[in-house]
Design goal:
Layout: E1 23-27, H1 31-47, E2 69-76, E3 79-89, H2 97-101, H3 103-111, E4 116-124, H4 126-131, H5 135-149, E5 154-159, H6 164-171, E6 174-175, E7 190-195, H7 196-206, H8 214-222, H9 225-229
Parallel strand pairs: 4-5
Antiparallel strand pairs: 1-2, 2-3, 3-4, 5-7, 6-7
């Protein structure tokens, strides 16, 4: 689910409730919210050498403007501390980074009627990482919720080769290819597949922090314009989306 950030493996040392009410998940729609996220992305990617310096100090692309895309900001005490972008790809919504970079892998799944959650642009603030050691895990709850909310068949993780072992161990993700060039990044990326049914039954039982409720899905997803546009693939748990 991340192309650059692998969380430290301390997921059993905390509970999401320990961070409430400090932590809030928000879908960014306002220009100032999006600008803050683009600048956070730029700092994070530049810090790890994923991109070249740019005078604009911001990092965005055309995928940010697709109608099946959520851009999430994670806030702690009203301060932006991390962000992740989620595309929901289906037969009716054939748009997303994974589909463009890995068409030979993704297209057959879409043709077969599968629904895929494709998270990208997973970044965290360096200072916030020190304050919240589990920030990456907190952020990764977003695509996990999306997988359940939209009744997806698969969640994807687009990751660097050296990060594959973590996703294999923690999410039981399966690598589907060797690393390939990835748009706008200085290093190649591979795609890994997570079976949502197994994530729901196994991961959730092992790691209570990734559990979420229908009420939380509604709070996070339902009130966004994107969710209303995606009513054709929304799970029955969200009948009010229209």
């Amino acid at each position: 689910m991340s192309i650059g950030v692998v969380p430290r493996e301390r997921s059993d040392a905390f509970r999401i409730s320990d961070y409430r009410p400090e932590i809030e998940y928000r879908v960014a729609t306002a220009p100032d919210e999006l600008e803050a996220i683009y600048r956070l992305r730029y700092r994070a990617y530049l810090r790890e050498g994923a991109i070249e310096a740019d005078a604009s100090g911001r990092f965005t692309d055309d995928y940010d403007r697709m109608d099946n895309c959520w851009i999430f900001g994670v806030h702690a005490d009203e301060t932006l501390v991390s962000s992740i972008r989620v595309h929901v790809i289906s037969r009716k919504r054939r748009k997303g980074p994974a589909l463009d970079v890995f068409p030979d892998i993704v297209s057959p799944l879409i043709e077969a009627g599968r629904v895929i959650v494709d998270p990208t642009r997973f970044v965290t603030d360096a200072e916030a990482n020190r304050r919240y050691p589990e920030l990456a895990f907190i952020t990764m709850r977003v695509p996990c919720m999306a997988c359940l909310c939209f009744d997806a068949d698969y969640g994807f993780a687009t990751v660097r080769a050296e990060h594959r072992a973590f996703y294999q161990r923690f999410f039981e993700a399966k690598a589907l290819c060797e690393p390939r060039p990835y748009p706008t990044l200085n290093y190649p990326i591979c795609v890994m597949q997570i079976e949502v049914a197994r994530m729901r039954d196994v991961l959730m039982s092992r790691h209570a922090n990734f559990r979420s409720s229908i009420a939380e899905w509604r709070l996070v997803f339902e009130n966004s314009a994107v969710a209303r546009q995606l009513a054709d693939i929304a799970a029955p748990a969200l009948p009010a989306i229209n």
